[in-house]
Design brief:
This protein is mainly alpha-helical. The protein has 14 helices and four strands. β3 and β4 form a beta hairpin.
Length: 353
């Protein structure tokens, strides 16, 4: 179909753009084009329209903004590169008026997709960080600013991103953003927004409730239906398993680790057990993330027998050993369920032949 072709083209564009950036290094990737490609894919799937998201028009808005800054803002700035970067931030977030959404809207996809952010001048920190980064990329390419870094606070901090001179002293806890990192953070925001199951604010992932539902821990509650979506006791305002899967797919490519596990459980719900099993066993179980999870679960099991060592570590390091233990148990149950589903599917195919 037309919308499926548009979605596939946008995914290819997203991958190609990020592939231009050296791993962990400076960004040759155009973060604005990557962000708009991400938005275009999801827009095609959500709307199923034959009208493609006009990404070139949105990019032209950014180019116009850059021309305004180069012509009207930077020529009068004194004080070196730091002053120039501060002037760009001031122009975007004070004079031009881009702002953060309310805390209640921080989970809204509407405040995350770049085309909406450009149109409404309101976005979550990763989206505003990508905008600032894209503007500075273009200014740097023209020779208007020098080497820079962008720092993006977490959504929980509810603070605007800012820029600093790349050669400046590193700030504790303020890691410089990269195009890949900005897109991963954007996808993480979308994943959390679209996750169909309850996702506690204190948990780093919504895997547990999803895995328990996949193995029928709570009966029909939490299971995916072909027509009614996810049946659950408490709703998720933006829950959408299709878009959650798409966010996980791109996160798995960028980050691997637990994203592989989370994608596998979504595939299990979507009745794709062979793909889910292969992803879980042949990829996720071979990652350091899984090894670390198992080690934390073992510590949780040792608990009081280890003289309270695990509880002490939980308090001092902020590690939730109980969650790790619950996730490890859910993983074992999910693997067993997938093994059974794959075997049953294979047997059914054999009988039909």
């Amino acid at each position: 179909t037309v919308w499926e072709a548009q979605a596939s083209h946008a995914r290819d564009a997203f991958r190609a753009e990020l592939a231009a950036a050296p791993a962990g290094g400076a960004a040759d990737a155009d973060v604005m084009r990557a962000a708009l490609a991400l938005a275009a894919e999801d827009d095609a799937v959500r709307t199923r329209t034959v009208v493609e998201l006009p990404t070139a028009s949105y990019e032209a808005r950014v180019d116009k903004l850059v021309r305004e800054i180069a012509a009207n803002v930077l020529p009068g700035v004194e004080g070196g590169e730091a002053a120039k970067l501060a002037a760009v931030c001031d122009y975007l977030f004070v004079r031009y008026g881009w702002k953060l959404p309310s805390r209640e809207e921080m989970a809204s996809p509407y405040r995350t997709y770049m085309h909406n952010v450009l149109a409404q001048k309101c976005g979550v920190p990763p989206a505003l960080g990508a905008l600032l980064y894209a503007v500075l990329q273009r200014l740097q390419a023209q020779g208007d600013v020098g080497e820079f870094e962008v720092v993006v606070p977490s959504n929980e901090q509810h603070s605007l991103p800012y820029a600093r001179v790349a050669a400046g002293a590193a700030e504790a806890g303020a890691e410089a953003a990269t195009p890949e990192g900005l897109m991963a953070d954007t996808l993480a925001s979308l994943k959390r927004a679209y996750w169909p199951w309850v996702w506690p604010d204190t948990d780093y992932s919504g895997f547990l409730a999803s895995a328990e539902a996949a193995v029928s821990t709570h009966g029909r509650v939490g299971r995916v239906g072909d027509t009614v979506g996810v049946m659950q006791g408490s709703g998720r305002p933006f829950g959408d398993i299709r878009l959650a899967r798409m966010a996980c797919e791109r996160l798995a490519e960028l980050r691997g680790g637990h994203e592989l596990r989370d994608l596998a459980v979504l595939l299990a719900h979507l009745k794709r057990p062979a793909e889910a099993y292969d992803l879980l066993v042949n990829r996720y179980f071979k990652t350091p993330a899984y090894s670390e999870l198992k080690a934390l679960a073992s510590l949780a099991a040792g608990g009081a027998g280890a003289g309270g060592a695990s509880l002490s570590a939980e308090v001092s390091l902020g590690i939730d050993f109980r969650l790790a233990a619950a996730e490890a148990a859910a993983l074992d149950a999910l693997r067993e369920r997938l093994e059974r589903d794959v075997a049953e599917a294979s047997l059914k195919l054999t009988e039909e032949q």
